[in-house]
Design goal:
- It comes from Kaistella antarctica.
- The chain is 58% helix and 8% strand.
- The chain has 3 domains: 259 residues, P-loop containing nucleotide triphosphate hydrolases (Rossmann fold, 3-Layer(aba) Sandwich), CATH 3.40.50.300; 168 residues, no CATH class; 125 residues, no CATH class.
- With 677 residues, it is of the alpha/beta class.
- The chain has 30 helices and 12 strands.
């Protein structure tokens, strides 16, 4: 038992029971929550002070059993068993609608000799379904303190703080699971040899090849013989059956249902939303509304931000002394940073809609709906969570694959997720679509929204084709099945989700801003200097853009990119954006601000007016489509590559992803440009 002044508590439960919401309320955190399994894919910690005591809460990934079948569940097992002497107890969150399912893991934790406190969450949902739970009887049957809560409405949280402070954690002295007779001799022999007191802990050693939360890397798992898992799985199944037989006896004493049950809104909606035909139609319609909103709702704030940075650049140019500092700020840093900040409203709107879908419970239906669709491609329904999350950022999306049990499906999902259109691609798509797509409407939907939706679908279907190829390449015979509960629909927390979005947008701005700030300085420096004009100079300064070293470097790669329809400026933008895709927009904004021949106005206006020596548009329709295809396929994010290696521990797959995606981007851009020019 921990004896330091700081009390450490673990927050545990099945997936989608409200753990993250309880964690946020206890610690006043802003961790993202979602009404579907697999949101928490690593432990999150936070603390709060209560009556002079500091209490640390660790929110662990959801799991249905003590035996880990995926990497995020292994985190839970490690904390519960290996780190048992580091925490004071476990607060177990039990969903009122799924008591039977939740009691399996709870009793396993009890049998490990861990002090527990039980919280029955979402009581209101149970009452609406005519379910009554006898809390006192449940406490008596389990020999544990039981609290009621409705975390979405912030009910029961203060009582939970008080009980944690009082130390209302109960440690069971007996083991509820009766170890099978044929294994008792071996268990007692190991007990004597190891001097371990808890016989159930020895049983978990026998019935789990991943004891203590040890999960091999994806690379190691692929090379392992899967036959070794057969015996442990048989013992785990044997334990599960026996436990549920005892749990059923408890359920009959504590849970009562009204004889007449009225069909609730959730059941009515699911008849349409998970329909094998209408479900897909409605999902497509919802996406179309989101993309229309990305352009329509963001138009005014984008114009305000653009006008502010134009004014700021002019102000700096007019009030700073003429010279390199003036040029650096007015034509380099301010336009570069402004070029990316102008797209913050679009990113915010997209993320907000995604969070509302997750919070409402609809995203769980999307997982269920897509499972049958994805299986022929070597994926399962759980793969849709990383794929959809990839529309925000590929990094947390790849990390969220840890809840995919099947190693082959997990590896395929990791490798294809970067094809999904992330928020870093959105500024590139937005600026190119704004250049080449006319401002017209089709039955009330703008052409630009349709074009943006097409780019998202292009990324999605490319990921499916890539998954189909990888399914044939990666050798693994393991089978998988999607087992999940569809949660009831809930009213999203609009204000809370808005705060989360503001934080995410700020993270994007500060993260991208740092990179663009650095590249703006580098780009300005090489555009400010050029080859010396006479013997007295080391280098010429304040030269025209076409005579700068930057132009010379860009033109040196022009032969390689000219077949794609790109000039040297686009080449510089593409090279810099291999660090992060959004850098392309900042680079182009800086370059056109440094070009003395470019007209005044926004970055889109400057790019639209740019002409080739023969008078043709630089950004023709063919060139624009070529750029869109390049950014749809190319792997241009160093951070994503780092996460892919960390999750797979394989340079082979990481490099295959980098060169495969980049090669596909070049070939696809070449083909579409040559066809359309």
């Amino acid at each position: 038992m921990k004896t330091s002044n700081k009390k450490q508590i673990l927050l545990v439960g099945n997936p989608n029971v409200g753990k993250s919401t309880v964690f946020n309320l206890l610690c006043n955190k802003k961790q993202k929550t979602g009404n579907y399994a697999g949101v928490t894919v690593a432990s999150h910690s936070g603390d709060y002070d209560y009556q002079g005591e500091n209490i640390e809460i660790i929110d662990l990934p959801g799991s249905y059993s003590i035996y880990p079948s995926s990497e995020d569940e292994a985190i839970l097992s490690k904390f519960l068993i290996k780190e048992q002497d580091q925490y004071s107890g476990v607060v177990y969150i039990l969903e009122a609608l799924s008591i039977k399912r939740g009691l399996l893991l709870f009793q396993q934790i009890q049998d490990l000799g861990i002090p527990t406190l039980l919280v029955v969450n979402q009581i209101d949902q149970a009452e609406r379904r005519g379910i009554k739970i006898d809390i006192d009887q449940l406490s008596k049957e389990l020999n544990v303190t039981v609290l009621q809560a409705n975390a979405k409405e912030n009910q029961g949280i203060e009582e939970l703080r008080a009980e944690i402070h009082k130390g209302s954690f109960t440690k069971s002295d007996t083991v509820s699971f009766d170890i099978p007779t044929e294994h008792k001799g071996l268990v007692f022999k190991i007990l004597a040899e190891t001097k371990e007191e808890n016989q159930y802990k020895i049983w978990t050693l026998l019935s789990s090849d991943t004891y203590l939360g040890k999960i091999e890397t994806v690379h190691e798992q692929l090379n392992n013989d899967e036959v070794k898992c057969l015996v442990p799985k048989r013992l785990q199944t044997q334990e599960t059956i026996r436990r549920y037989q005892e749990i059923d006896k408890i359920i009959t004493k504590v849970l009562f249902k009204k004889p007449q049950f009225k069909e609730l809104l959730t059941e009515k909606l699911d008849k349409v939303l998970v329909h094998p035909i209408w479900g897909y139609v409605i999902f497509g319609f919802i996406l179309l509304i989101i993309f229309q909103s990305v352009f329509f709702l963001a138009e005014y704030p984008m114009n305000w931000i653009s006008e502010f940075f134009l004014w700021f650049s002019s102000f700096a140019n007019a009030h700073l002394p003429a010279g390199p500092i003036n040029s650096l700020l007015a034509n380099g840093i301010i336009p570069g940073v402004g070029g990316i900040m102008v797209f913050a409203p679009q990113i915010g709107i997209l993320l907000y809609f995604l969070y509302l879908l997750e919070d409402s419970g609809y995203m769980a239906r999307v997982i269920f709906l897509m499972d049958r669709f994805l299986r022929p491609f070597g994926l399962n329904g759980k793969s849709i969570v990383p794929l959809v999350s990839g529309t925000a950022c590929a990094i947390p999306a790849i990390m969220s694959t840890r809840n995919i049990e099947n190693v082959k499906e997990r590896l395929i999902t990791i490798l294809v997720t970067p094809f999904m259109t992330c928020s870093a691609r959105l500024p590139v798509y937005s600026i190119i679509i704004g250049l080449i797509i006319p401002n017209k409407y089709f039955i009330g939907i703008s052409y630009k929204a349709i074009a943006l939706m097409a780019m998202y679908f292009l990324g999605f279907f490319t990921s499916l084709i890539a998954a189909l190829i990888l399914k044939k390449v990666i050798k693994s015979t393991a089978k998988s099945f999607l087992v999940m509960d569809l949660p009831s629909y809930k009213m999203p927390l609009f204000g809370y989700d808005f705060k989360i979005v503001l934080g995410k947008v700020w993270e994007f701005i500060t993260g991208a801003g740092k990179i663009i700030f650095l590249f703006s300085i580098v780009i300005w420096f090489f555009s400010y200097i050029g080859p010396k004009q006479n013997d007295d100079e080391f280098v010429a300064t304040d030269v025209k853009l076409e005579q700068s070293y930057l132009a010379k470097m860009g033109k040196s790669i022009e032969p390689a990119i000219a077949p794609l329809g790109y000039d040297w400026k686009m080449g510089v933008g593409i090279l810099t954006s291999f660090v992060a895709r959004e850098v392309f927009v900042g680079t182009m904004s800086t370059l056109y601000s440094l070009d003395d021949e470019a007209p005044e106005g926004t970055i889109i206006e400057k790019m639209r007016s740019d002409r080739k020596p023969n008078g043709d548009k630089v950004y023709s329709f063919a060139t624009g489509i070529s750029i869109l295809f390049f950014y749809a396929f190319a792997m241009q994010c160093v951070s994503t590559l780092a996460v892919v290696y960390r999750e797979t521990k394989s340079w082979k797959w990481t490099m295959a992803q980098l060169f495969g995606m980049s090669g596909l981007a070049y070939i696809a851009s070449l083909i579409v440009y040559q066809i359309l020019k």
